[in-house]
Amino acid sequence: MMCWIIIAIAVLFVVFYVVINGKAFGAVPKGKRLERIKKSKLYRKKQFQNINHTPSIAEGYKMSKVTYDFFLGKKDPLLKPLKDIPSIHTDLKSIDKNQDVMVWLGHSSYYLQVDGISFLIDPVLSLYGSPFKYFNKAFKGADVFKPEDIPELDYLIITHDHFDHLDYPTVKSIKDRTGMAIVPLGIGAHLERWGYPENKLIEEEWGTEIKLKNNARIIFTPARHFSGRRIKQNDTLWASYVLITPTKKIFLGGDSGYDSHFKMIGEKYGPFDYAILENGQYGEAWRYIHTLPEDVIQASIDVKAKHIIPVHAAKFALALHPWNEPLQKITSLGKEKKLSILTPRIGEVVDLNQSDHQFSVWWED
């Protein structure tokens, strides 16, 4: 009997080792990259740190209860949409390169074109927001864009390495159409394993400013989150970004709980023409690492945004709220504060030179 138990444990260990070392899980920082990480002021106690103490679970909650509710608890009947998400399959390759546009591709993926420069942010264009097929499947209608729809890119931008922001099949597929990849410190290890040469990586930490083409620049700025594609957490950095071009100033928020960094970014780099902020996949228990809608409103005020574009919703069910609750709440709260909240459908072109934006209430159809 003991022999069979030992064999079973050995088999499970081998299977785990094979799976966790699959390409989708990327690579662990080593060599020069690891030495650079160890020298970072953001890296302490063998991991990257947030500005302020950031527990994964808020006070008053237990990890065991949160985990049970997520996997086995009763689900809201509108956790997933009852019919296809309304979307538009815009031909990204046909958009005039002189147009300043933003096209939301679902969840936190979006295509951005400003002052003749093209950007793709956190692309997850395979059918699953996870390393495994048939787990965390995209909603019907939210899956209209595929990697082959992406045009030639000047810059790929990654905010952190979670599977719903850094998708191996997508990033691998667009490699030969990507000029440079902009990633937080440590994430270059994943991309190098997937075929990106070192000279195509701009890999930095918070506070670093990089000159881009056409007199634009990008600054790596803080976020309040965490990272990790394997067992060890926070061995790679997470970030938000400030993008400054000759005619636009845009804040790319990434995933983040609310904290003092929003006000710091607003005071140092604001006001912003647009702030693209996480709004969705939240819960009271996770408020330190994901903003609640009321936090998104305060963050947009802190960064001094003229227009707010909420993302991180309407494609995957990664939390327990109804799928359309984030949009319901953010538009209601924004109206109370008289803020400009832009809510395009997936694939709908947002003209960044237009001052009066009008969108349908598509999540209530």
Compact description:
The protein is of the alpha/beta class and about 375 residues long. The protein is about 20% helix and about 20% strand. The chain has a 7-stranded mixed sheet, with no helix packed on it. A 7-stranded mixed sheet has the order 9-10-11-12-13-14-15. The chain has a two-stranded antiparallel ribbon with strand order 1-2.
Q: What can you see in these coordinates?
A:
- This protein is α/β, with parallel strands linked by helices.
- The chain contains eight helices and 16 strands.
- The strands form three sheets. A seven-stranded mixed beta sheet has the order 8-7-6-5-4-3-16, with no helix packed on it. Strands 9-10-11-12-13-14-15 form a seven-stranded mixed beta sheet. A two-stranded antiparallel ribbon has the order 1-2.
- The chain is globular, with a radius of gyration of 20 Å.
- The mean pLDDT is 94.
Short key terms for the protein model shown above:
365 residues; alpha/beta; 7-stranded mixed sheet; 16 strands; 22% helix; globular
The percentage helix is 10-25%
The total of beta strands comes to 16
Task: For the record, give the distance between the C-alpha atoms at the N and C termini, rounded to a whole number.
Answer: 59 Å
Radius of gyration: 20 Å
User: Helical region count?
Assistant: 8
Portion of residues in beta strands equals: 15-25%
Low-confidence stretches: none
Query: Main sheet?
Result: 7 strands, mixed
Helix-strand category = alpha/beta
What is the ordering of alpha helices and beta strands? HHEEHEEEEHEHEEEEEHEHEHEE
Average pLDDT figure:
94
**General form:** globular
Strand arrangement within the widest β-sheet reads 8-7-6-5-4-3-16
